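Ligand-bound model needed. zinc ion.
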Amino acid sequence: MKRNFSLVATVLLSLFLLVGCSPTKGTQTTAAPLGAQVTYSRTEVITSSDQAKQLLVDGNTRFASGKILAKDFSSTRRNDLIKNGQHPFAVVVCCSDSRVPPEELFDQALGDLFIIRVAGNVITPVELGSVEYGVEHLKSPLVIVLGHEKCGAVTATVAGGEMPGSIGAIANKIKPAVAKAKTTGVKGDELIEKSADLNVQNALADISNSPIIKHAKSNNQIKLLGAKYHLDTGLVHWFN
Ligand SMILES: [Zn+2]
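Prediction:
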């Protein structure tokens, strides 16, 4: 026991000498990653679609360049969101793919994004209801459908064949995009990426058909945009 304590003390002393400063200061220096000195916590309510898009563009630029901001996850912030309610500035429909987490790739924090994640970013009545809730009830000024490169759901649909369980229900929603992509004559990876892009367009069309969304659009309350996340660069490319 005594020996273990001495070992810990020796390690601590070595670290102390190594950083050449007080233990507290050394901990702060090593614990704060570069570019994370600014703690991000949005307090204003965003009502402009253009401002909402710009926040996503700026956040993605930070993410892709490795300069993400520190986030406020404190109890003060959490309680503030309980007391004042949530006012997410964007509704994001996105694939479940673990490499495409919206909060991270748009560098946003608690209370910022209302996210609907489903394999293949498809829209069924359940997903549509969530989008409508974000627009009608939470008053988000921006709705985006975010596709991504090398989507497994799209790739599996292009490959075809039997799908176990309920996976086929996802493929059935993606099939029209694949059929349309095939008419352009593209093959291989190009066919997969073309199908993914058309699948985003189909999801946008499904959302546009909602009377609630139509009403919000006609009142200029929201904008509805498509985008695609590129796995290698970390950048989101906007369709419109
Ligand atoms: Zn995917």
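Strands lie at 39-40, 70-71, 90-94, 113-117, 142-148, 223-229, 236-238.
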